[in-house]
Amino acid sequence: MIRLENLTKVYRLKGRKTVVADNLNAVFPTGASVGLLGRNGAGKSTLLKMIAGTVSPTSGRVVSDGTISWPVGFAGSFHGELTGAQNVRFVARIYGVDTDELVDYVADFAELGVHYHQPFSSYSSGMRSRLAMGTSMGIHFDTYLVDEVTSVGDADFRAKSQRVFSDR
Q1: Distance of CA 92 to the CA centre of its chain
Q2: Which helix (H) or strand (E) holds 9?
Q3: Which of 27, 86, 87, 155 is the most exposed place for a label (fewest CB within 10 A)?
Q4: Residue 58 CB: number of other CB atoms within 10 A?
Q5: For residue range 17-68, what is the model confidence (pLDDT) as tens digits?
Q6: pTM attached to this predicted model
């Protein structure tokens, strides 16, 4: 279960105030699939990041009785100077999972070959997506947050990602 309690997010930039979430209250039951609909810039991704805990709300809180993923397929936290494998090892340590198991899982899933051991900054956007999706699927969470991840990669990779995600 995930519960939003008076969740508010306000950004201030150059004297302008933008309210992205205004006193949201909702309960998402365990096992339910929920979709967020809205125009670009409506705050869907920001809401997911607040639920994931990667963005702090201005006020209010998110309460959960289980583990919540970061937005699936998000590659923004990978360090450019580290290799793909080193980035995955780092994520494994943060989430307390077996580092060797996750590194092996992602190597198999992402199919990056020798590139897996090259700096992340040298990756194409497709390679970044493969690494991010593999890392996301390699850690078991009670709830997975998805933000437009199904639109990345070639057809075979999208199908593979969808199969693995459906199993979760």
Answers
A1: 14
A2: strand 2-13
A3: 155
A4: 15
A5: 999 999 999 999 988 889 888 898 889 989 999 999 989 999 999 999 999 9
A6: 0.81
